[in-house]
Amino acid sequence: MNILKLFISFLKIGAFSFGGGYAMLPLIQKELIDVHGWITTKEFIDILAVVEMTPGPVAINSATFLGYKVGGFLGSVAATVGVVLPSIVIILIIAHFLSKFKSSPYVSWAFTGIRPVVLGLITSASLTVAKDAIIDIKSFVLMAILFYLTSFKKLHPILVIVLAGVVGVFIY
């Protein structure tokens, strides 16, 4: 496994993702599973479960865990640095030119156009994960109930994760 390839893969993911970690998931899946075949879809879903339960940003946690899975400690470092480097560079550039950017209607229009793309990427990632995570009627019902509790009853996500784990122990 070439650590440089892993770094470049996550550098691309970090450079071309807008909207945070969830928006990166389809790019991560495409790069690690489809392009390189470094992990399977099942491994990807299992790692996402760990990433969701781990404190910190989804993008960094994903890069760290997936990098470790693919290339050990050095893979973890390479993936994490690769995914955050574009954001750091962009933030430094924006901070330098902030006074020129903040009043530009073009910048406002660009971000207005990017918002629906972010939603589309998150939806795409959700549907991709759902195809492999919903394995039977029990998992579908569990997903629907937990979606309802999280979205409409505003149950805390940590409680939902714990609840899902306990229910999973009993029904599987």
UniProtKB/TrEMBL annotation:
Location in or out of the cell: Cell membrane
Domain of life: Bacteria
Pfam families given in the database record: Chromate_transp
One GO location term (cellular component): plasma membrane
Family of this protein: Belongs to the chromate ion transporter (CHR) (TC 2.A.51) family.
PANTHER family listed in its UniProt record: CHROMATE TRANSPORT PROTEIN-RELATED, CHROMATE TRANSPORTER
Name recorded for this polypeptide: Chromate transporter
